[in-house]
Design brief:
- There is one protein chain.
- The chain has 122 residues and is an all-beta fold.
- Helix content is 0%, strand content 50%.
- The protein has no helices and eleven strands.
- Strands 2, 4, 5, 6, 9, 10 and 11 form a seven-stranded mixed sheet that branches. It has a four-stranded antiparallel sheet with strand order 1-3-8-7, with no helix packed on it.
- The protein starts with a strand and ends with a strand.
């Protein structure tokens, strides 16, 4: 079992930055692909970014590429999402997710956090 707890969300003006954190329990964290998804009101949950278990591979949605950076610190069992140049359309609840194996961009992750709200004002 892996438990995920997100933090770092909040209210920020357009053009600003936030860093989300996702703390994971369990000794197998370093073997899991970690990902971030988000869900805006009235919209489906969408893939944002993912990082391989080794940290050597990352993948981003086109609408965040160049603005967001995913990273992981296995010593701290934590994955991060650095979000720069935020836009109002980035407003959503952001979820952390984990799975073994390879990176995928669909919902088929085994473990999910409870989410953290990010609100970007114009």
């Amino acid at each position: 079992q892996v438990q995920l707890v997100e933090s770092g969300g909040g209210l920020v003006q357009a053009g600003g930055s936030l860093r989300l954190s996702c703390a994971a329990s369990g000794r197998t964290f370093s073997t899991y692909v970690m990902a971030w998804f988000r869900q805006a009101p009235g919209k489906e949950r969408e893939f944002v970014a993912a990082i391989s278990w080794s940290g050597g591979n990352t993948y981003y949605a086109d609408n965040v590429k160049g603005r967001f950076t995913i990273s992981r610190d296995d010593a701290k069992n934590t994955v991060y999402l650095q979000m720069n140049s935020l836009k109002p359309e980035d407003t959503a609840v952001y979820y952390c997710a984990a799975k073994p194996g390879v990176i995928i961009t669909t919902y088929r992750y085994d473990y999910w956090g409870q989410g953290t709200q990010v609100t970007v004002s114009s």
